[in-house]
Amino acid sequence: MAWVQIRFAVLADHVDSMSDFLMDIGCQSVTFTASNEQQAIYELKPGDINYWATSTCVGLFDAADDMDFVARSIANHPNMDKDFSYKIEQVEDKDWEREWMDNFHPIKFGERLWICPSWRDIPDPDAINVILDPGLAFGTGTHATTALCLKWLEAMDLSDKTVLDFGCGSGILAIAALKLGAKRAIGIDIDPKAIIASQENAERNGVADQIELYLPEDAPQFDTEVIVANILAGPLKELKEVICGYGQPGTLVALSGILAEQANDVANAYQELTELLPPEQEDEWVRINGKIK
């Protein structure tokens, strides 16, 4: 089936009404993105909804639809600015599921760790392989924040250690730690979908009997030798005492989900609780690691 999309700007206050309006005139799907990179919103909790001051709206229509009528209808909408401008684009007809799957490849971290989608052949059967598909929760290894944490875990001896994955998402870090030799992993996340995803991924990788998963309010107190928290700068600072409270003097800590320009603020927040090394950077993101005092 052939598709065409219309792209235009809309103010935050009018996003919901415009979405409903587009669906009423035959739109198949509506997406909203930031009009520019500077407007990007990184720190949202599950269930939060927040729009940019000006969003780019993209409405997808059947190519047989009258796009002149669609454009006129949008222009005449009471919430649309009189200077309304738009762009109509043909969308290439392809197998989108196949296209999506083709974007995910096995990725190697360090000398011995691979993250592999289930539909791909494992490149090195003798390596440490974590089978993990994109799904309910964040974390596939493709994002720099996750990659920084995986490289950190891969480089250390985790034998007989307990690892806390704070903000576990898909469970990728906890599962990787177990595959790398940890005896026990604990995942904590505020999103119930993350708990479900982590459990399913742990079962797929044969480590379900070594992992414990909790919402924050249900997590018991425990001590751990390794803590990795791949969340975001704001929550990292806000939850510093909670995160470090699961460790003891000498516990290794890695903090990720931090933009390069946020590194100093996060490091300063933790300076009384930890001894941190200089940040490691990948793309625009950094990981800070050290140990609890």
Automatic annotation (TrEMBL):
Catalytic activity: L-lysyl-[protein] + 3 S-adenosyl-L-methionine = N(6),N(6),N(6)-trimethyl-L-lysyl-[protein] + 3 S-adenosyl-L-homocysteine + 3 H(+)
E.C. numbers: 2.1.1.-
UniProt keyword terms in alphabetical order: Cytoplasm, Methyltransferase, Ribonucleoprotein, Ribosomal protein, S-adenosyl-L-methionine, Transferase
Function recorded in the entry: Methylates ribosomal protein L11.
Organism of this sequence: Psychrosphaera haliotis
Domain of life: Bacteria
Cellular location(s): Cytoplasm
Annotated residues for binding of S-adenosyl-L-methionine: 146, 167, 189, 230
GO cellular component: cytosol; ribosome
InterPro entries according to UniProt: Ribosomal_L11_MeTrfase_PrmA, Ribosomal_PrmA_MeTrfase, SAM-dependent_MTases_sf
Keyword Transferase among UniProt keywords: yes
Name of the protein this chain belongs to: Ribosomal protein L11 methyltransferase
CDD domains membership: AdoMet_MTases
Molecular functions (GO terms): protein-lysine N-methyltransferase activity
